[in-house]
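Can't paste images in this forum, so I'm doing it all in text. The chain is below; anyone willing to post the predicted structure tokens underneath?
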Amino acid sequence: MQDELQATAEALAAELGRSVYIEAPGYIPLAVSTHYGALDKARMDALLARTIAPEMVAYYKQWHLDAADEPVHIPGNNALGLLPRVVYPIRHNGRLLARVWLVNAEPALVEDDDATVARAARVIGRILFRRDEKTQQRADADEAALRTLLRGDVPNRQAVLDEALWRHDIASGSSVTVLVAQGVAVVSSRVEVTSEALKSFAADVGTASGGMAVIPAAWSSELVAVSPVRGDVQRTGRALAPVLRAVATRHGLQIAGIGIGAAVHGADGLTDSYRQAKYCASVDRKLAPLEGYRDWDHLGMLRLFAEVPWNTDGIDLIHPGLGRLFEDTRSPLPGTLWTYLQCGGDAQQTISQLNVHRGNLYYRLGRAEEILGLSLNDGNIRLSLHAGLLLAKLAGFPGLDTAPIPPFNKTP
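Text version of the structure:
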């Protein structure tokens, strides 16, 4: 299919005497012809980066390209290094399959050129429709496979995994991991992301994974993927997390948190890797939302809370009675105690961070000791308090919302 599409782009470019750029919705490049005619900075950047810069996406949005049924003329923009363009939508049964972009300069397009592009668009549409049928079949098979693989009580799970790996040209017996992207949502909007948007997002992740084949599916504002491990899980995450966020941006979406489970061999360990990935994504969206990722192998002491409820019961399990400190939602005591412990018990550093008087700090610490019935001079007590307050921060308890984030390494 790709050879057919590229051949069509080359033939159209030769007939028009100008370069042809074909992309899928979401600004995903499908085919780029040999260079003809004018070439601007915007096209060069798109070719080199294989993606569209955010400022270009913002500029293009003014012309509502996704809703267009006719060619759209986009004026040039010197600040963006952009020559004028004409964008031709390619649709089938009303659904946008792709767009053909032509630079409208040196010389400008004429009416006959529109007819030439229209003929080529019909050919491109047929190619993409056949591809979309196959893509949809594969997406349905992937979703069914993941739903099977991530349940622990289904027989023949290894056969399901082997078939899914074969479908994506991943060697059987490869070390694999589960990746979870949580909180997939429409950017700057309270509109709930639709299942169709999630499926489109998942499909694009499957074709834009930077040379690393993945088996993706999406449901309930969550994308799940099984990926082969290249080197180790951290290296795999560094390669895939930016791709996920870039594809989400192209679709007008954002990801709250990304998590990656431990590497496993075979289907039996996938449910554990999935559980770990979900937990890592939850931690990521709490501590560093909308950026980076967390993986199980490098989560450190945050693993402690994977099996503990993120509520008052869990906090009291870590340090009995700690929940009493949160009964007054307006109290500064939790944030003060957290900062004091984060500073290693250094009063001067705590005063500096909180911008309070020394006497005020000691009053608050004394009041916390009184409420909890303990002494902060005991190292073991300070350790359990610190752990309990960290869990409270993960759980979003009041008084810790603006407290400093723990100094755990965020994976870029």
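The longest helix spans residues 111-149. The mean pLDDT is 85.
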